[in-house]
Every structure is written in structure tokens, then in C-alpha cells.
Specification:
CATH topology: Sodium/glucose cotransporter
Number of helices: 18
CATH class: Mainly Alpha
Strand content: under 5%
CATH architecture: Up-down Bundle
Number of strands: 0
Number of domains: 1
Shape: globular
Largest sheet: none
Length: about 500
């Protein structure tokens, strides 16, 4: 069990119980939308722009933002601002440009999952199957950061062991996911996004009450210094650029956004979702800075000992708040983790049940798809718990790995595939194979010290996949250009 920085109180425990019960109630209500494959695996064409905007911000934020983000600030300083700035344009571009064509796909074919769209666009079961494998692998990597963050959070909130914390958090998540799938995930994510926004104001109040906004003590601290408050921070410049790029590109390649683009009721809702989602995420992500600086201020003033585990930076800050304010901040942390976990559980189970099976020639009846999908949700969660506990690495690192993996398989397939007529079937197959192999091989090479990349390897995997898709498309013509499937013509006229 981690050091107990936060003492559980009746207020915190009460907030936690109410949060879990409301989430379960909303999820069970959403069961009425989950009678079809489109409803259970995709929530297709079911929700308005406000719901989708809040749900997108909540699902993208995750433990990576609320727990990993402050840790990055504590270690590197103000450089995290460039990550948050990069996300806003990514949200807007994603919903306004890519979103209109993703949504149009729901009008020209039956869409329940992202590989459904890939299959129709490229007329290929191979693309469908490889993408399903890539999404599942990436979901497990990314969900592991939620397991790690969730275990730490419940330990601090309730004073239980991390094992019991994971059981409570993800048990309650599965309680509504098993009955409502993606529909339940979207509705509960919207509620959790609202909780996050309320928590943001709690953080702002807590930070200025604690520090008075004075950064001079950090600048004059021997442990930190002036570097930690300037625009470059203590992070190497190439790493700053890498993080900013992966956040800009990665947010557009986040399945949490892409899948919700065809969940909106109409094209008009896309602009609302883009504005609300981008503003909500931007506001909540700026909280990383405040929480991280709050932790630095506490250490610099001697109010707390230096921390070695970066994931404890958020809890150190929260520990110095009190009462209702502390409960609000903790509820925001909880909402960020649960919202992300629910989405990726559904994403992975759908990819395995519907898409991988279909790609292998086993099209399963819809009713049976939903039944199998529920069992696979449990399997996926067990895999993620195992990887989260024994995969090592901090929450921020695990989250970044997940973002890079997602971007390398989704950017070529959807951003290039839906915006560029020339993008071919053969190019996407090769790009996906490269992305899956490289994202599995690169961390193995680094962990066993076989090869050390001079830059974050996810730049290699994302960039390599894009380059392969581009170059190969000029020499092949499967489902591209003049050979574009006829049902795709209305999509490319938008």
C-alpha cells in the first residue's frame, strides 16, 4: 500500500459512494439503447453535441491527465503547457474536419465500431482484422495506466489496499458496462465530464488559497529553480516538441474521439461537440499545471518532503486541501479514470467480438455478439489489471505509450483514409502491420537495453506508419482514386 497522504473522511467516502451509484444508475438507464450492435458497441447516431462534447473531454483526460500530468509538471516544470495548447486545435480539427466524414459513414453503412468504417472504406477484411488487433493492444496498454492510477486513487480516497481499490473501481464500472456497452459509457462519461469541470474550480480555489499564486519560492528553491517556471522548463527541447506533436496528432487519433464522431445525432452536433470538448479538455488539462506547481510549492517551502514517485504529486497537493473542496478534487480524479476505462473496455470487446471474428470469416449473429462482448469485457479488464500491476512505468509514461499506439493505427486509417481519396488498401495494410509490430517491439528493445532511441519511439511508430501509408498509396490503387467504393462517394463530397 502507498504512503497514506490523504486521510479518508466521511465526506470523501460519501462522495465516492454517490458517484459510483449515480454512474451505475445512468449506465443501467442506457440499457434501453443497447439492444442492437450499433447501440451496444457504438452508440451510433444517438446523442447530442453537449453529451458527446462532455463525454469526449472526460474520456480523453483519464488518469494520464489528472495523475500523470502533475507528475510531469513536478519533474519538468512549465513545459506541460505546450501539451495542453496542442490539444485544443486537435479537438477542433478532429470534430470539424474528420468528424463530418466519420459521421457520414454512419449514413452510408451500418457502423458499430471503428473497424466497421475501415472495412467499408478499404473494402478489406484484412484491414478490419489488423486494426482490431492494434486497437485491442493499444487499449490494454492505455487501460493499464487507468488501472495504475485508479489503484493509487482508491487507496488514497478510501484507505484500502490497491488491490481492493481496483476491485471497487472497475467492478462498479463493469456493473453498468455489462448491460449497456458503449451507450452506457457515453452517457456516464458525460456525467463524469460535468463532475470533472466542477472539480476544476475546486482545484483553482485550492491552488490560490494555498500558494497565493507566488512562484518565487519555487524559482529560488535549490531543488527546482528558475528553469521550472519558464516556457522551456527542465525538459529537453526535442522532448517538448515530441510531446506537443503527439498530443496534437494523438488527440485526433484517439478512439475516444473518433468513435464518438458517429455517435452524434446529426452533423450540426459536431461543431457543438468540438467546441465544448476542446474547451472542457483545455480547461481541465491546465489544472495539471496548477496541481504540479502546488506540489512543487509544498516541497520548496518545506511543508512536505520531496517525492520520488511522480504519481504522488497530485495526491500531495490534494492532501493539503480539506473538507468539501478535497472531495470535489478527488471526485474529478475518479471521474477522469472511470470515464476512460469504460470506453476502452467497450472498444476492445467490440473489436474482438465483432471485427476480429468477422475478419477471420466468422460473422456472429448480433444477439450473440452482445452476449460474447459482455464476457470479453471481463477478460479485457483482467488483462489490463495484470499489465497495469506488472508492466512497470509511471502513469504518464503508460498513457503516452497508449496515445502513440492509437495514433499510429488510427491516423493512417481514418485521417488519411477519409480525407485523401488516393489512400489505398495495400498502403493501409502495410502501415497497420508496421504500427502493430513496431509498437510492441520498440518498448521491448528499450526495456531490455537492446536499442535506445534518441527520441521518444512513438514518434518513430506514428511517423513511420504515416510515411508508409503515403508512399505505398502512390504505387497501389486498391479501393483508392478511381477504384473508390461507390458508397464512399457521398462521404468524399462533403
Amino acid at each position: 500500500m502507498d504512503e497514506q497522504l490523504i486521510q479518508p473522511s466521511p465526506v470523501i467516502i460519501g462522495y465516492t459512494i454517490v458517484f459510483m451509484l449515480v454512474s451505475i444508475a445512468i449506465g443501467w438507464y442506457a440499457n434501453k439503447f443497447a439492444k442492437t450492435a450499433e447501440g451496444f458497441f457504438g452508440g451510433t447516431k444517438m446523442f447530442g453535441g453537449v453529451v458527446i462534447g462532455l463525454a469526449s473531454a472526460a474520456a480523453v483526460m483519464s488518469a494520464f491527465g489528472f495523475i500523470g500530468g502533475p507528475g510531469l509538471v513536478y519533474k519538468f516544470g512549465f513545459t506541460s503547457i505546450w501539451m495542453t495548447i496542442a490539444c485544443g486545435p486537435g479537438f477542433a480539427y478532429g470534430y470539424w474536419v474528420i468528424g463530418k466524414r466519420m459521421r457520414a459513414m454512419a449514413d452510408v453503412t451500418d457502423v458499430a465500431t471503428l473497424p466497421d468504417i475501415a472495412r467499408v472504406r478499404f473494402q478489406s477484411q484484412a484491414v478490419r482484422g489488423i486494426l482490431a488487433i492494434g486497437l485491442c493492444a493499444a487499449a490494454v496498454a492505455y487501460l493499464s495506466s487507468q488501472v495504475k492510477g485508479g489503484a493509487k486513487l482508491m487507496n488514497q480516497m478510501l484507505g484500502v489496499s490497491e488491490e481492493w481499490g481496483v476491485a471497487i473501481m472497475f467492478g462498479s464500472t463493469l456493473a453498468y458496462m455489462l448491460v449497456s456497452g458503449m451507450s452506457g459509457s457515453i452517457l456516464t462519461d458525460a456525467f463524469q465530464g460535468l463532475v470533472m469541470l466542477i472539480g476544476v474550480f475546486g482545484v483553482i480555489i485550492a491552488y490560490f488559497s494555498m500558494t497565493g499564486g507566488d512562484l518565487s519560492v519555487i524559482m529560488n528553491s535549490p531543488q527546482f529553480g528558475p528553469t521550472f517556471v519558464d516556457g522551456a522548463g527542465a525538459m529537453p527541447f526535442q522532448l517538448v516538441i515530441a510531446f506537443a506533436m503527439i498530443f496534437f496528432i494523438g488527440v485526433m487519433g484517439q478512439p475516444t474521439m473518433l468513435a464518438k464522431m458517429y455517435s452524434v445525432k446529426s452533423h450540426r452536433d459536431l461543431k457543438v461537440a468540438g467546441i465544448l470538448g476542446g474547451c472542457s479538455y483545455g480547461l481541465t488539462s491546465l489544472v495539471w499545471i496548477l496541481v504540479g506547481y502546488g506540489a512543487m510549492w509544498l516541497v520548496a517551502t518545506g511543508a512536505s518532503a520531496p517525492i520520488k514517485d511522480l504519481d504522488k504529486a497530485a495526491f500531495l497537493f490534494v492532501s493539503k486541501t480539506g473538507g468539501v473542496l478535497q472531495a470535489l478534487v478527488m471526485a474529478a480524479l475518479l471521474a477522469a479514470i472511470v470515464s476512460t476505462a469504460s470506453f476502452f473496455i467497450s472498444l476492445a470487446s467490440g473489436a474482438l467480438t465483432r471485427d476480429l471474428a468477422g475478419a477471420l470469416g466468422h460473422e456472429i449473429p448480433v444477439g450473440r455478439q452482445i452476449v460474447i462482448g459482455r464476457y470479453l469485457q471481463i477478460v479485457v479488464m483482467i488483462l489490463c489489471i495484470g499489465f497495469g500491476y506488472w508492466g512497470g512505468r509511471a502513469v504518464a509514461i503508460l498513457g503516452t505509450l497508449g496515445w502513440g499506439f492509437f495514433a499510429s493505427v488510427t491516423i493512417p486509417t481514418f485521417t488519411m483514409g477519409l480525407l485523401w481519396r488516393r489512400c489505398s488498401r495495400e498502403a493501409i495494410i502495410l502501415a497497420l502491420i508496421f504500427a502493430v509490430v513496431a509498437n510492441i517491439a520498440c518498448p521491448i528493445l528499450e526495456n531490455f537495453k537492446i536499442w535506445r532511441f534518441p527520441f521518444p519511439y512513438y514518434l518513430f511508430t506514428v511517423g513511420g506508419a504515416i510515411i508508409i501509408a503515403t508512399v505505398v498509396s502512390f504505387f497501389t490503387d486498391g479501393a483508392a482514386g478511381k477504384n473508390l467504393p461507390k458508397q464512399m462517394e457521398p462521404v468524399f463530397k462533403l
